């Protein structure tokens, strides 16, 4: 769905979208490394995982947090949100529900971040 007006406005975070139609091309790996690199140079970073099948970025960040906790290491972590796939019977309703969840995720973190990576 295309928007007639931009979602981001003045004072909004920079948005970096890592995308490719091909599976296994390294999108999640690139997004994770980019987010961590931005954190390491002092930027406030948010991430949104839109891949409801794999949840790769979500699982990576969860595992990073668990690993650091067990080793008593403080690691930089982005503000992260996961947008689940709608499961209704109507495609239009599902699209509207997913868009609303995506917009809510952005609204929830945009004031606290300099970059949004997904």
Automatic annotation (TrEMBL):
SUPFAM superfamilies registered for this protein in UniProt: P-loop containing nucleoside triphosphate hydrolases
InterPro entries, A to Z: DNA_Partitioning_ATPase, MipZ, P-loop_NTPase
PANTHER family linked to this entry: COBQ_COBB_MIND_PARA NUCLEOTIDE BINDING DOMAIN-CONTAINING PROTEIN, P-LOOP CONTAINING NUCLEOSIDE TRIPHOSPHATE HYDROLASE
Name recorded for this polypeptide: ATPase
Originating species: Bradyrhizobium macuxiense
Lineage: Bacteria, Pseudomonadati, Pseudomonadota, Alphaproteobacteria, Hyphomicrobiales
